[in-house]
Design goal:
53% of the residues lie in helices and 12% in strands. By secondary structure, it is of the alpha/beta class. The chain has a four-stranded parallel sheet with strand order 2-5-8-9, with helices on both faces. Strands 3-1-4 form a three-stranded antiparallel sheet, with helices on both faces. Strands 6-7 form a two-stranded antiparallel ribbon. α1 packs parallel to α3 and α9 (234-243) packs across α10 (256-266). The longest helix has 22 residues, at 3-24.
């Protein structure tokens, strides 16, 4: 590729990124964004026909057309989104044990997508349904775009489903398959990877690695080596633990500073401990049991 062709390619990418940035800033919706790419493609094709006898210019237009065509194909799924949600409601979900009697409670947040006009409308509707709403956030283009990208990567097998990846990480860490892990990952209302630490602790408790007689809320993703990774929706999870009157909560060390600020804001009474790996969590649970 010569210098001029390279410059055309770069300018085409910059042109695309400009409109992508405007879309991500909520200047226009996904349908308008895809239409802009489509119209750009049509215009380039017309130019390509008009300049078909001018080999130099034809090559440059062909490069730009090809790039826009590929980008249009990648972004086209956005045009298929009909009536996207306007709000995401985070709702209380009762912490649960995957191993009955273990005292290890997994903390998750139920989420509902709604297409109401205002946050007040969302709260009123959910209140009538007696839903315990923790927070309501407006769905923006960044969230929609991120969801679209994830779906494409999954279809291309370039990204694993978070639930499946979590199950594999826990299984690798434990060194064998556990039915409690398989059962949990098959639940229809399961999402995200924040149950990893709780599943690993439940698996080790089942295998007799330690004992526990205290109710402890646990949240945190893990990798195959048992290192604890950060999670989202920390504020909502602390709210859930408070409402459930569980006295102790274990979180990732990466979320410790955030959790401390939230605990102060909410004036939460739950004792929060942070860990960086599963072994540290086991030692912490043993210590809590020893002092009680």
């Amino acid at each position: 590729m010569n210098k001029s062709s390279f410059i055309i390619g770069v300018l085409t990418i910059i042109y695309y990124l400009l409109f992508l940035l405007l879309y991500l800033q909520d200047v226009f919706n996904e349908f308008v964004f895809v239409c802009i790419l489509f119209l750009s493609l049509i215009i380039l094709l017309i130019y390509l026909i008009v300049l078909r006898k001018q080999s130099v210019n034809k090559r440059k237009i062909a490069i730009a057309t090809f790039i826009i065509f590929l980008l249009f194909l990648y972004e086209f799924p956005l045009a298929l989104i009909y009536n996207p949600p306007t709000y995401l409601a985070n709702i209380y979900k009762q912490p649960s044990e995957v191993l009955e009697g273990s005292g290890i409670f997994l903390v998750g947040v139920s989420q509902l997508n709604l297409t109401e006009k205002s946050k007040r409308d969302v709260i009123e509707i959910l209140s009538k349904q007696q839903a315990d709403v923790l927070s309501v956030e407006e769905v923006d283009n960044k969230m929609i775009y991120s969801s679209k990208n994830s779906q494409i990567l999954k279809l291309l097998h370039l990204q694993k489903d978070p639930i499946k990846q979590m199950g594999e990480n826990v299984t690798q860490y434990l060194g064998k398959e556990e039915e409690l892990v398989n059962s949990f990952t098959k639940q229809s209302d399961t999402s995200g990877s924040s149950a990893g630490l709780g599943l690993a602790l439940s698996g080790r408790l089942k295998n007799g690695d330690y004992q526990n007689s205290l109710p402890i809320a646990v949240t945190g993703a893990i990798n195959e080596n048992g290192e604890v990774l950060s999670i989202g929706y920390m504020k909502e999870k602390i709210q859930i633990v408070e409402k459930s009157v569980i006295p102790y909560m274990i979180i990732p060390s990466e979320n410790a500073e955030q959790a401390a600020a939230i605990q102060k804001e909410l004036k939460a009474k739950v004792e929060i401990f942070d860990v960086s790996n599963v072994d540290e969590a086991v030692q912490l649970i043993q210590h809590l049991n020893d002092i009680h």
